[in-house]
Amino acid sequence: MSVHVQNTRMTTTRIRQMKGVEKITMLTSYDFTLARLVDEAGVDVLLVGDSASNIVCGNQNTLPITLDEMIFLTRGVVRAAQHALVIADMPFGSYQINDDEAVASAIRILKESGADAVKLEGGAEVANAIRRMVKAGVPVCGHLGLTPQSVNQFGGYGLRAKQEAEAEQLIRDAKLLDEAGCFCIVLEKIPAALAAKVTAAVSCPTIGIGAGAATDGQVLVLHDMLGLNGDFKPKFLRHFAHLAEPVHDAVTGYISAVKDATFPSPEESY
After folding, report:
1. CA 35, CA 84: separation in Å to the nearest integer?
2. How many CA atoms lie within 13 A of 130 on its CB side?
3. What is the domain-level CATH number for residue 124?
4. Catalytic annotation on 179?
5. Are the CB atoms for 184 and 206 separated by under 8 Å?
6. Containing domain of residue 141, as a range?
7. Which of 84, 119, 214, 249 lies deepest, with the highest CB count within 10 Å?
């Protein structure tokens, strides 16, 4: 029996109940207009990802985006969401210094943006901060595997946990996050077989990106799956549309119409 009800606002409890019952759908969103379209289509979760650093701001990685910027972007997405749960990423530097600052940052995100939950990267090193957030009433989504905020430490965006030692540590970290109270865990760019083991080992749902089909749900960057980012096509990404060309054509059509004075027409004038 499906627990997904299109016209009912999603909650963290409902997301938990979907584990093993119905696949969870998550997409990133960074603004009101696109978030409203995605929400109306029926996605379960809108993730205001720190990938906004790349998608919105044009940075090379996720590190530069600030807490203030994430709160600003999340407000618009929250206003658009009539059905989906809204999760806001905690940006680099907002939770790594100490647990007190981590909890304060998480509370600030919920109070000032209206988000339903926060997401942060890491395993054992953030487990205590997550426990304190959950105790303070902040729902938390974990994130393991390829954690983009650690790109300088990893030396790139390659597949994680290929070796047995790292795979075993990832499973331990997932169990720690589960025990700490995470209502779901994102697994990014890890072997599909390992993602299946993690999914079976934890009580909360897992959301995969580049982690195979055995996870409890999937997440993609909206602009990537819509084909707006040119030739960006990692193995795990499926283009569900190819919108870069029609957007380009629309803009060139507008330019031509303005240049040759056919826009606005008499019918489009007051």
Report:
1. 10
2. 29
3. 3.20.20.60
4. no
5. yes
6. 12-241
7. 84
Reported as type and span, the H/E element at residue 25 is strand 24-28
* Number of domains the chain contains: 1
In a domain, 125, yes or no: yes
Q: Is residue 63 part of a domain?
A: yes
- Condensed to tens digits (0 to 9), the pLDDT of residues 74-100 reads 999 999 999 999 999 999 999 999 999
Tell whether 196 is covered by a domain: yes
pLDDT, residue 155, reads: 67
The total number of residues shown for the chain amounts to 270
Q: pLDDT grade, residue 231 (50/70/90)?
A: confident
**Set 168, 188, 267, 268: catalytic member:** 188
How far apart are the C-alpha atoms of 44 and 238, rounded to whole Å?
Answer: 19
| CA 258/CA 235 separation, integer angstroms | 41
Helix, strand or coil, per DSSP, at residue 221: coil
Asked whether 103 and 129 are in contact (CB, 8 A), the reply is yes
Is there a domain that residue 267 lies in?
no
Q: Strands 140-145 and 206-209, how do they pair?
A: unpaired
CA distance 236 to 210: 5
Query: How far is residue 97's CA from residue 144's CA, in Å, rounded to a whole number?
Result: 19
pTM: 0.94
